[in-house]
From TrEMBL:
<keyword id="KW-0805">Transcription regulation</keyword>
<comment type="similarity">
    <text>Belongs to the plant homeotic and developmental regulators ALOG protein family.</text>
</comment>
<dbReference type="GO" id="GO:0003677">
    <property type="term" value="F:DNA binding"/>
</dbReference>
<dbReference type="GO" id="GO:0005634">
    <property type="term" value="C:nucleus"/>
</dbReference>
<keyword id="KW-0804">Transcription</keyword>
<dbReference type="Pfam" id="PF04852">
    <property type="entry name" value="ALOG_dom"/>
</dbReference>
<feature type="domain" description="ALOG">
    <location>
        <begin position="7"/>
        <end position="113"/>
    </location>
</feature>
<keyword id="KW-0217">Developmental protein</keyword>
<dbReference type="InterPro" id="IPR040222">
    <property type="entry name" value="ALOG"/>
</dbReference>
<keyword id="KW-0539">Nucleus</keyword>
<dbReference type="InterPro" id="IPR006936">
    <property type="entry name" value="ALOG_dom"/>
</dbReference>
<keyword id="KW-0238">DNA-binding</keyword>
<protein>
    <submittedName>
        <fullName>Protein G1-like1</fullName>
    </submittedName>
</protein>
<dbReference type="GO" id="GO:0009299">
    <property type="term" value="P:mRNA transcription"/>
</dbReference>
<dbReference type="GO" id="GO:0009416">
    <property type="term" value="P:response to light stimulus"/>
</dbReference>
Amino acid sequence: MSAAAAAAAAAKRGDWITFGQYLKNHKPPLTLSRCSGAHVLEFLRYLDQFGKTKVHADPCPLDALIGRLRAAFEENGGQPETNPFGARAVRLYLREVRDSQAKARGYGYGVLGGGSDGSSNRVVLVGAASSTAARGSMIPLSALN
């Protein structure tokens, strides 16, 4: 195992332990099988009160945190279709965070309307910066799907 893979595994394990503590400290205590997307959002607020999340950091650590917890859930016996970290509410929250980060950096997303030929809408980046560093910090459009 490479050093990067070991660090990622340690981060995932630490995040999973922290989530377990949240479940245990929840009033009333929660079992993993009863955990929902709403509980995941509550967990993020729980972390934020201790300064453990940096919502406006670049890149967004919430995406990485949720990804690690989503994987840990399934590695610990959870079924993909019941994974609260993949719930619609969580995905929408992450999208809102990414959008607010993009707006804070002077970027915005606009939707081009579909054509009369029935073509689908496309999401485009509005106000793109010209510097290479700024382009490297843009959120890929695939992250919004």
